[in-house]
């Protein structure tokens, strides 16, 4: 017989695979409060500290707390907590610092979606989840979130023939996360999905994310091809940031003469150069020992009213 049987509600977790409501995760009993031994009882020595108690204000959810990554099967959520996106959003906000619930954010959403075919996450909920998944580099989960967003449109679109106007931030976070990680196919797929779902042409900002990732990966030829697809196929007007990416990439890969070609293309499209444009060209000329041409660029920069910088 063990020296002291576990008392009810002593904070111990159920065995692996067992389902237990989270209200069982109570604060440890006083005699299990860690390695302190005020009465000299040898049974109290070297006991590990348990997780902090669950916030009593959180709703009680029957989650498989002993299997977190990911739970299998996905935990069933009571209808009271899956009744609306607002209720789930409040739950996620309140559980964001909990050591166990924080890792279950997407699984809570999927459980709510599985519990009711009428459940549709709104843009506030999906934007919050996209930010969390992107910050923690959970890219497969991020891809699953986008699939859910496309299959169950935001309720904002019910009163309009157009898609939800606040859909863009969710996809922007996802595209940026994919591109930053170097997964260009996933970023391009997310961009194509957004292009089909949106009711108006996308701004150049979304294309610049992938363009910058290609340049950062030293895929200069792919960046030029992507620019051609952006302008010719999708009819997106490039902005100053688009050209600054191409000017900088050309300076590093082909030389400053190729970068000057993009600078001239920038002016042909009536896109005003910025200080970054001029600084990149001057740095390219000086790197190649062509100081007079670099000073000429600086003179033109001052004539256009763009101030010099220390960059």
From TrEMBL:
<protein>
    <recommendedName>
        <fullName>Pentacotripeptide-repeat region of PRORP domain-containing protein</fullName>
    </recommendedName>
</protein>
<feature type="repeat" description="PPR">
    <location>
        <begin position="274"/>
        <end position="308"/>
    </location>
</feature>
<dbReference type="Pfam" id="PF01535">
    <property type="entry name" value="PPR"/>
</dbReference>
<feature type="repeat" description="PPR">
    <location>
        <begin position="239"/>
        <end position="273"/>
    </location>
</feature>
<feature type="region of interest" description="Disordered">
    <location>
        <begin position="1"/>
        <end position="51"/>
    </location>
</feature>
<dbReference type="Pfam" id="PF13041">
    <property type="entry name" value="PPR_2"/>
</dbReference>
<dbReference type="InterPro" id="IPR011990">
    <property type="entry name" value="TPR-like_helical_dom_sf"/>
</dbReference>
<dbReference type="InterPro" id="IPR051222">
    <property type="entry name" value="PPR/CCM1_RNA-binding"/>
</dbReference>
<dbReference type="InterPro" id="IPR002885">
    <property type="entry name" value="PPR_rpt"/>
</dbReference>
<feature type="compositionally biased region" description="Basic and acidic residues">
    <location>
        <begin position="33"/>
        <end position="44"/>
    </location>
</feature>
<keyword id="KW-0677">Repeat</keyword>
<keyword id="KW-0809">Transit peptide</keyword>
């Amino acid at each position: 017989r063990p020296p002291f049987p576990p008392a009810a509600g002593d904070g111990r977790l159920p065995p692996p695979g067992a389902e237990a409501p989270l209200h069982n995760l109570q604060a440890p009993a006083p005699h299990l409060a860690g390695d302190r031994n005020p009465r000299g009882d040898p049974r109290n020595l070297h006991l590990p500290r348990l997780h902090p108690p669950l916030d009593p204000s959180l709703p009680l959810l029957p989650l498989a707390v002993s299997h977190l990554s990911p739970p299998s099967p996905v935990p069933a959520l009571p209808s009271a907590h899956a009744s609306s996106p607002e209720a789930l959003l409040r739950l996620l906000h309140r559980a964001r610092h909990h050591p166990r619930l924080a890792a279950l954010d997407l699984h809570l959403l999927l459980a709510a979606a599985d519990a009711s075919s009428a459940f549709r996450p709104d843009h506030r909920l999906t934007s919050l989840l996209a930010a969390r998944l992107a910050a923690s580099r959970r890219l497969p989960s991020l891809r699953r979130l986008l699939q859910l967003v496309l299959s169950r449109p935001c309720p904002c679109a019910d009163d309009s023939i157009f898609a939800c106007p606040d859909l863009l931030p969710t996809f922007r976070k996802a595209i940026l996360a994919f591109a930053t990680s170097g997964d260009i196919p996933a970023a391009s797929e997310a961009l194509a999905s957004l292009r089909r779902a949106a009711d108006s042409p996308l701004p150049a900002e979304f294309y610049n994310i992938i363009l910058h990732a290609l340049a950062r990966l030293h895929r200069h030829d792919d960046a030029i091809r992507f620019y051609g697809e952006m302008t010719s196929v999708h009819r997106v007007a490039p902005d100053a940031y688009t050209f600054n990416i191409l000017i900088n990439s050309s300076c590093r890969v082909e030389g400053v003469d190729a970068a000057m070609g993009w600078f001239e293309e920038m002016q042909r499209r009536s896109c005003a150069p910025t200080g970054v444009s001029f600084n990149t060209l001057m740095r390219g000329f000086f790197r190649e020992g062509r100081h007079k041409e670099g000073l000429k660029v600086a003179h033109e920069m001052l004539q256009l009213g763009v101030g010099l910088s220390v960059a």
